[in-house]
Amino acid sequence: MPQCVLEYSKSYLEGYFHFALELLERLKGMVPGVRFSFSGFAMEGPEGLLALSRLTERAKRLGYCVLLTAPEAMSAREAAYFADTFFAPQCPWAFDILVTGAYLGTDGVRPYVEKLKDSNRDLLVVVRTGNKSAPELQDLLTGGRLVHMAAADKINRIAQELVGRWGYSRIGLVAAPGAGESLRILRSKYPQMFFLLDSYDYNNVSAKKCAAAFDKYGHGAAVLAGTRITEAWIAAQTDGYDYAEQAALAVERIQRNLTGSVTIL
Fold first, then answer.
1. What percentage of residues in the chain have a pLDDT greater than 90?
2. Three-state SS annotation for the chain
3. So what's the pLDDT on residue 204?
4. Could you say which residues of the chain have pLDDT below 50?
């Protein structure tokens, strides 16, 4: 967040709220969706969760598809509690898609799946992350498969229960575009699963690598650009006062790169 925003704010949370709000307003109609981290706002206490509620509601009103990353459940009981909370009719956070992890096993995914059946919300499950040390565990071989492929196989079997009218399941995968060969295998194996490509803001990621996740019609995936947008003012080496405009310019560059690598029919 630019220092100039903090200078006119009473707290970090207040500054971040206005920073996020201005980006939402400026990028309306330019990007289809936005992701919020529940844990990040929860760290700011009750005021943080209230800010999250206000931001998600505003994003919905502006027409964004709102993704919310759930806290990591450490037990089946926690997963069930989180599912009850986020899919409750009175849930204060407006979202369309909940993002959760795969590595608790089906105990950590099933509670959400059961809620989907009576909801108009969807689920994305993280199977491969883009951080530097991810291969240490996620790319280990187990029974002839990489660990993240085994996780994807399990999620795919569950996802078949909720295939929609357009041919895609309401349960999708989150994967890292930096692992290009992995994406090609995942797409060929799971034609009915939607992919969210995280970590596009990592140095080893390109639009060409992302293209492997899209189907032959240029559908079936979305790219999460992260700090390439929110920190575009840093890359442009400005003082940050123009952060919203720099974000818009970054979106245009990313879109040009993606459409140059992905043919949409």
1. 86
2. CCHHHHHCCCCHHHHHHHHHHHHHHHCCCCCCEEEEEHHHHHCCCHHHHHHHHHHHHHHHHCCCEEEEECCCCCCHHHHHHHHHHHCCCCCCCCCCEEEEECCCCHHHHHHHHHHHCCCCCEEEEECCCCCCCCHHHHCCEECCEEHHHHHHHHHHHHHHHHECCCCCECEEEEECCCCHHHHHHHHHHCCCCCEEECCCCCCCCCHHHHHHHCCCCCCCEEECCCHHHHCHHHHCCCCCCCHHHHHHHHHHHHHHHHHHHCCCC
3. 74
4. none
